[in-house]
Amino acid sequence: MENIYLYMLIALALLAIVDLIVGVSNDAVNFLNSAIGSKAISFKTIIIIASIGVAVGAIFSSGMMEVARKGIFNPGEFMFDEIMIIFMAVMITDILLLDFFNTLGLPTSTTVSIVFELLGAAVAMALLKITASGGGFEDLLSYINTSKASQIIFGIILSVIVAFSIGAIVQWISRLLISFNFDQKADWVGAVFSGIALTSITYFIFMKGLKGTSYANVTFDIINGYTIKDFLESKVVGIVLVSSVFWAVLSYILIAFAKTNIYKLIIVVGTFALALAFAGNDLVNFIGVPVAAYNSFLEWSVSGVAASAFPMDVLASKVPTNNWLLLGAGLVMVLTLWLSSKSKGVVQTSIDLSSQNTTKERFQPNAVSRVFVRLSIGISDIVSESIPKNIRAKIDKQFDQAKGPLTKIALRDRPAFDMVRAAVNLMVASVLISIATSMKLPLSTTYVTFMVAMGTSLADRAWGAESAVYRVAGVLNVIAGWFFTALVAFTVAGLVAFLMHLNVQIMFPVLLFTALGLLLNSSIRYKKKTQLKQSAAAQQKSESLSLQGVINESANTIAKVLNRGARIYSNTIFALAQQDLVTLKKNKKQVVKLSDEIDALRDDIFYFIRSLDDASVGASNFYIQILGSLQDMTQSLNYITKLSHKHVNNNHKKLKFNQIKELSEISQTVKHFFKETKQIFEMQAFNKCSSVVEQKTAIDASLKRNIDSQVLRTRNEDSSPKNTTLYFSLLIETKDLMNAIAGLVEEYNTKYNQSLD
């Protein structure tokens, strides 16, 4: 039995590494968003700067893993065996919860997750102890500090309101003064802005990044015997004034004489600062629990007391963490930054929601987002009307974004927002987090950085008429996810702790391997999904914009679509004959997926047409025609699969033998037709389209004969109305499907011959 705790300790060490990976993948958005979105520097350089910040933050972290000692629960009320169950429940829940958010590409708070997991597991264990001892519910207060939960919830609400509002106000003022033509402003304008921004960020580095280090409480004669922490908190005004002047003067020198892009410098320093603070303060969220478990194990193993009788008062004291452990944790965090694909997904969500450009919206509007947008428009109109026209015109001029040629390539490479907004994001986030730290307000770093970015986006008019309802819906989804984090973390951790308490020897390995299995499965599925997205994206982007280029590059895509269409059609007919509801349902999903990909190509039409030169305008008409044919094809497939699934799902009578026989023959003919057509596109042998036309004619004739046969059966036999309707519908829709494919081949043949002339 005693060996089980050694195994649990080893498992916790493994889970700590996994938690570092999933945690950094989510929290990376805090310090990568502004740099990546603005494209101020290359992605490689961004990761290098962030890696240095993370490494420095981890190494110079205080090493005080106090996450289990912050008043969430009273460790002295629990025995060693109970504490180990609590810690194991927390870590299992944490990796699954954070990975879930990473897979969705949504940012959340690792602090909120770990706190509510500790709270949930501790509550579950306390209730079990109270029940066993015959106590009452009021006894729970001796085990748990319930005010912690309300404090965190208050922190979420405060973060949302304050960060969004301040971000919007500062961005509006900054844009009003600097405009989008910031590179054309006088040198002193950039110098003053830089002075304020760099002061905010450097103060943040000391206030948030270094406050927990061993140096923070050391007195220095140079600052009159103050500790760094006390000096920063008591001499705020003086520090800010001196620092602002220093940075402003230095920035002016760099701008005027070294021709430095000062906004890039702000972004570099800001990225480093947030990365340093993240590693220095949030490291505890990932390894704090395993470290606390290790300390507990050491104390118990030398005590000679049974695990169920050894109280955990030791956790109430501060125990520094080994520097080598901090170094190892920092290394894992750095490697995750370089290798994690899920972190890119989380960052991309934030960038898309704050983008100045037109993007493919990933969130669907809802009633709440529509109300918000309508209300905002109404308020905006009222305020706008109260401002004199000449002043309003001047304001609007400052918010006019200089637009270059609207080409597909330019759009793809264009930053989501400019460097001014990126600098404001970093500056405001640094100020707010610094103030919250000094005033001991429960603001979350994740919540602050995200909401500041959303506020600056609104103020910068990035949420236009065509995107606002989607962007607001996205923000509301993210905020809802934060409350969801607290609820799920509490509930699942409590459930896992309860299950382990039933029989720790059995449930510990079962739950551990289940969690790791779910994590592995999630990674595999995410990788496959990412590969499919990349493939689809590659299909959407034409490097050649000429007619011949469109023909060459789209032919292979068409061939793949035809191959999938053939499989869907034949599988549907076969499944219908077999009454196979599972396959029919699967085919429905496959058609929807195919249709979405065609819709994505259609959504790209605007940028495709705008990117054409005068000599290649003919390619646009061709592009529209082939998309129309593809849509007709997917609509026919969609109708066929839906109708078949509905028939079987509603338990209607099975098709008769003759109907099945005729449909099977048609299916084989259509399958061959698809195959021949696919080969034409693969080889680009469009001169062979006459054979396709002949096959289509033969299929049309077969369809007509089958329709006539069914008419006779309907008149002369006792046939089912549902069967008859289904049969006629399948035949007619098959004919439309053949027309769409034949039209596609004929269009390619015509344009291919034109391109050769």
Write structural notes for this entry.
- The structure is a single chain.
- The protein is globular.
- It contains 26 helices and no strands.
- With 757 residues, the chain is mainly alpha-helical.
- It has helices spanning 3-27, 29-38, 43-59, 80-104, 110-133, 147-178, 187-209, 228-234, 236-256, 262-301, 323-339, 341-354, 367-386, 389-398, 408-413, 419-438, 445-459, 468-502, 504-540, 547-578, 581-603, 605-610, 618-649, 657-683, 689-716, 721-756.
- The chain has two domains: 3-532, no CATH class; 543-756, Up-down Bundle (Methane Monooxygenase Hydroxylase, Chain G, domain 1), CATH 1.20.58.220.
- Helix 23 packs antiparallel against helix 26 (721-756).
Which word captures the global form? globular
Mean pLDDT, nearest integer? 81
Q: Please state the oligomeric state of the protein chains shown.
A: single chain
Q: What level of helicity do the residues show?
A: over 70%
pLDDT below 50 for ≥5 consecutive residues: which ranges?
404-410, 538-544
The helix count comes to 26
Rg, nearest Å: 32 Å
Sequence of secondary-structure elements: HHHHHHHHHHHHHHHHHHHHHHHHHH
Q: What is the total tally of β strands?
A: 0
Structural class of the helix and strand makeup?
mainly alpha
Largest sheet: none
Domain count:
2
Determine the strand fraction and express it as a percent band: under 5%
